[in-house]
Amino acid sequence: MSTDDHAESTETTDAETTPTAGASTDASAVTGDLLRVQGLDAGYGELQILDGVDLDVDSGEYVTIVGPNGAGKSTVMKSVFGLTTYMGGSITFDGEEISGENPEEIIHHGLGYVPQNENVFSSLTVRENLEMGAYILDEVPQDRLNEVFERFPILEERQQQKAGTLSGGQRQMLAMGRALMLDPKLLMLDEPSAGLAPDLVDDMFDRIDEINESGTAVLMVEQNAKEALRRCDRGYVLVQGGNRYMDDGDVLLHDEEVRQEFLGG
Ligand SMILES: Nc1ncnc2c1ncn2[C@@H]1O[C@H](COP(=O)(O)OP(=O)(O)OP(=O)(O)O)[C@@H](O)[C@H]1O
């Protein structure tokens, strides 16, 4: 278990990113070969929210970020995608420094991002939304479109329907499908279960598992922390804009301190 006073301190120590022995899978072997965030400071305008955040995602890994409301979880993802004010630290993706780049540039590296809100164009059809997902390419990649339809058959059925008429679950699938159109190496999902009826939440998590099992790394922010930690390889607990814990999902899930403080006992 990795703990520290990071919420109160801006100093980065080895302890906060180095898990203790006994992890159920090998969290200590993480290299951050796909995404490596080191000492990230970022915020909105002059307002600093993130204070020295460290985060790694390896190729093919499934990583989740949990933590209390307002901790800065969404801000981490937005910052990786170039949507906040970059204030310091380093973000490398697939070996290239991307800190300070804008989303148009970042998407070319193979990073997909599904924001929590306004993640589809309501007035466009399902198919048009998916085609928009590949807007950086000269032509819509038919093989990708077919793969998305295979993964989410309901989107093929409803391809001529306006996205605004879809149910919450279908809209979420469309948002993920859109991000998958460019076959990203890493798919970042902000609260994919938010607003879904309870009986749809499991289905959504199953689909995310499948996306990850097909080789796409996943970085997910979730309020549904227990389920997210159960499903992921590794998790981070973020508090007040800084890392508080990092370890394998199962280890965090069963850690007494994490359970009491962040998982409702
Ligand atoms: N566009 C913005 N401008 C200014 N402050 C913002 C903006 N977006 C978020 N914040 C602030 O940044 C802090 C972190 O917000 P963020 O949404 O990243 O937290 P979170 O951990 O994802 O929380 P939640 O689970 O409630 O979504 C909060 O204090 C929030 O009010």
TrEMBL record:
Q: Where is this region: Disordered?
A: 1-26
Q: Which top-level group of life is the source organism from?
A: Archaea
Name the InterPro entries for this protein: AAA+_ATPase, ABC_transporter-like_ATP-bd, ABC_transporter-like_CS, BCAA_Transport_ATP-bd_LivF, P-loop_NTPase
The answer to whether UniProt assigns keyword Translocase to this entry is no
**SMART domains in the record, alphabetically?**
AAA
Note the SUPFAM superfamilies from the entry.
Answer: P-loop containing nucleoside triphosphate hydrolases
**Keywords, sorted A to Z:** Amino-acid transport, ATP-binding, Nucleotide-binding, Transport
What GO biological process terms does the UniProt entry carry, in alphabetical order?
amino acid transport
Q: Where is the ABC transporter domain?
A: 35-265
Identify a single GO molecular function assigned to this protein.
ATP binding
Pfam families with a match to the protein in the record: ABC_tran
Biased composition, class Low complexity, residue ranges: 10-21
In the record, the note on similarity to other proteins reads: Belongs to the ABC transporter superfamily.
State what protein this is by name.
ABC transporter ATP-binding protein
**Source species of the chain:** Salinirubrum litoreum
